[in-house]
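Many introductory courses stop at the sequence. We go one step further.
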Amino acid sequence: MLWSDPENEPPKELRDTQEMLRRLGVLVAVAMLLAMLVIGLG
């Protein structure tokens, strides 16, 4: 990256989408963990 390059900030929609995907990934991970616990206990 060159010093003369402008700051390439991603557009707001892209950042919102990335944030949503990150939260979705965390939710899926927690749900899978809970499912494994239920299956293991059941």
